[in-house]
Amino acid sequence: MKKLTENLYQMTTYIQPMDFTIHQYLLATNPAILFATGTYEDAKKNLPFIKEILDGWELKYIFVSHLESDECGGLSVFFSEYPEVTVLCSSLCGRELPGYGYKGDIKVCHVDEDLIDGELELQFIDYPSEVHLQNGLLCFEKNSGLLYSSDLMQQYGHGSGQFIQSHWKQEVEKIDLNRVPNEKYLHILKKKLLQINPQYIAVGHGFCIKL
Ligand SMILES: [Fe+2]
Ligand SMILES: [Fe+2]
Question: Domain count of the chain?
Answer without folding.
Answer: 1
